[in-house]
């Protein structure tokens, strides 16, 4: 399955979330977008569910020789979460990645301030929380995000993505009460291959999505 763009994927994912019996158990959920790519997907879901939307900033920790190759991730105040299998294959240690992790922690704080503009995080305690991204390749960033959400004592945590790899699905399932996806291609290769339009989402777009979500749904 290929999606036209992130917003079309979000609308289809909202339909899947609303299907019984899952939809009957959602109650009054909170939608958390993993920016930047998850923001337009999450916006469509939040609109369909008439739910509040917020961002959950998580940062990938890339390999020293290839920053795009995620071997770990950060979210909230939690310590870095590393993909132990990837570290072993690449002969890397957390100590070697500590400088990169500190850089990403600084960027995480900067982006939280940029997107929220001083607003506190959405209230999630005792509520169903739907964490949304545009796809999962390795799942390490989503795992860090889900662990961060758990510390905020939600009633349930759902991870919703349009497309994911089988390996990522297996990695994130223990971290969530429900994993919702539309397609799980194998071989997977990359998230962007499953979109006709996978243009980079700009910070300004995330800010607009968060601002618009403050208006009555």
UniProtKB/TrEMBL annotation:
GO molecular function: glycosyltransferase activity
Coiled coil: none
Keyword Coiled coil (UniProt): no
Pfam families in alphabetical order: Pribosyltran (PF00156)
Keywords, comma-separated and alphabetical: Glycosyltransferase, Transferase
Residues in Phosphoribosyltransferase domain copies: 27-170
Domain of life: Bacteria
Xref: InterPro entries: PRTase-like, PRTase_dom
Name of the protein in question: Phosphoribosyltransferase family protein
Organism of provenance: Streptomyces lonegramiae
Highest classification ranks of the organism: Bacteria, Bacillati, Actinomycetota, Actinomycetes, Kitasatosporales
